[in-house]
Design goal:
The structure is a single chain. By secondary structure, the protein is of the alpha+beta class. It has three domains: 90 residues, Integrase, DNA-binding domain (Double Stranded RNA Binding Domain, 2-Layer Sandwich); 93 residues, Tyrosine recombinase, N-terminal domain (DNA polymerase, domain 1, Orthogonal Bundle), CATH 1.10.150; 185 residues, Orthogonal Bundle (hpI Integrase, Chain A). It contains 15 helices and seven strands. Helix 5 crosses helix 6 and helix 9 runs antiparallel to helix 11. The termini are far apart.
Length: 396
């Protein structure tokens, strides 16, 4: 006889598991501890097999019978229901692991140690607030440019145009990682270039008049604070990297003998090489006895072991303490100073300068140059730049 809901509810456990059959191989197994489990007994390829159909009452009698019929239809097509279920689970796991959010979180975890905590916090906040709710569950290979643009425009519409551009930039980094790991075929962000209005922002203050740079450099040399900050102030104009890259410089990335500093640019997630001039090497050698045993070249004064970089405001605070206002110079201003004078005064090719600034520089075929491109010329340029600054500083 077929089972009924009343019979199932009244079924009591015994000392051993017992089976209550419904027909066509479907039965309810009542465990000694009271659990009631739906099972389907069937034969495939000459072997008797079992398929779990759920737990009563979460799965009702009607739902268990429907599961039984679905499995029987697979059998008529010579498909093993158990193997079919395993294949579906594997496909779902694959889909989840290849979702945009899964790939983005994997990319974030792999690169987080290279970023400042403030940058990491802002980035994951953008991902979780502005991106994941809309495309996080989609397969990364299936996200279309139109879907991506819709995400960016949603951010733009709330008045955050600069953040909208940053959203596309972050998505591009995730897509390139997906391509590199074999989970996507291409990065859809380049086709959206120009789809958002440009950001009209101000520029960082910088000194670009040679007559003013000499006195400014002499003021920097007169800083009487800690040796760590003093060395950072003196090194900043010589290497003109981004402020975050300077304060997070690690000793393991610096080869004083070779005169090289290698690191990964957080903004573009690309390797970069800074040839160190003789003057830059002297500054680093002066500082090495103090901080060389720790991780960071410029550690925070609050961490004696040197396991945290100095604060992002340390250089700015030092500039202000010297009477240099924000309208005169900022941490980013050293980059504008070098870009302008290397071009207009020393006459170096713009692509050499842009490459040394860690901007993306491409050849005529659209390929990005690697970090060692034009290295001999850039070594010469960095040394001539340091010598030029010395001449400006000495010219009274």
């Amino acid at each position: 006889m077929s089972l009924s809901d009343i019979a199932i509810r009244r079924a009591r456990p015994g000392n051993k598991a017992r089976k209550m059959f419904d027909g066509r191989g479907l039965y309810l197994e009542v465990a000694p501890r009271g659990g009631k489990y739906w099972r389907l007994k069937y034969r495939f390829a000459g072997k008797e097999k079992r398929l779990s159909l759920g737990v009563y009452p979460d799965v009702s009698l009607k739902e268990a019978r429907q599961g039984c019929e679905d499995a029987r239809r697979l059998l008529t097509r010579e498909i093993d229901p158990s193997e079919h279920r395993r294949a579906l689970k594997a496909a779902r796991r694959q889909q989840v692991s290849n979702s945009f959010e899964a790939v983005a979180r994997e990319w974030f975890a792999r690169h987080r140690s290279n970023w400042a905590e403030s940058h990491s916090s802002r980035l994951i906040s953008h991902l979780e607030r502005d991106i994941f709710p809309w495309i996080g569950g989609k397969p990364v290979a299936g996200v279309t440019p139109s879907q991506l643009l819709e995400v960016a425009r949603r951010v733009e519409q709330r008045g955050a145009l600069e953040t909208a551009h940053r959203v596309l930039q972050n998505c591009g980094q995730v897509f390139r990682y997906a391509v590199a790991t074999g989970r996507a075929k291409y990065d859809p962000t380049p086709v959206l270039r120009g789809a958002l209005p440009p950001v009209k922002g101000g520029h960082f203050a910088a000194l670009t008049d040679p007559k003013k740079i000499g006195p400014f450099l002499r003021v920097l040399d007169g800083y009487e604070g800690s040796l760590i900050v003093r060395c950072a102030l003196r090194l900043a104009p010589l290497v003109f990297v981004r402020p975050g890259e300077l304060r997070r410089a690690e000793w393991k990335a610096i080869d004083l003998e070779a005169g090289e500093w290698r690191f990964t640019v957080a903004k573009t997630d690309t390797p970069h090489l800074v040839p160190l001039s003789r003057q830059a090497g002297e500054i680093l050698r002066e500082l090495h006895p103090l901080t060389g045993r720790g991780r960071y070249v410029f550690p925070s004064g609050r961490t004696p072991r040197g396991d945290r970089p100095m604060s992002e405001n340390a250089v700015l605070a030092a500039l202000r303490s010297l009477g240099i206002g924000k309208e005169e110079m900022t941490g980013h201003g050293f980059r504008a100073m070098a870009r302008t004078l290397l071009d207009e005064v020393l006459g170096y090719r713009p692509d050499y300068i842009e490459h040394q600034l860690a901007h993306v520089v491409r050849d005529p075929l659209g390929r990005a140059y690697n970090r060692t491109a034009h290295l001999p010329q850039r070594r010469k340029m960095m040394q001539e730049w340091a010598d030029y600054l010395d001449r400006l500083k000495a010219d009274t």
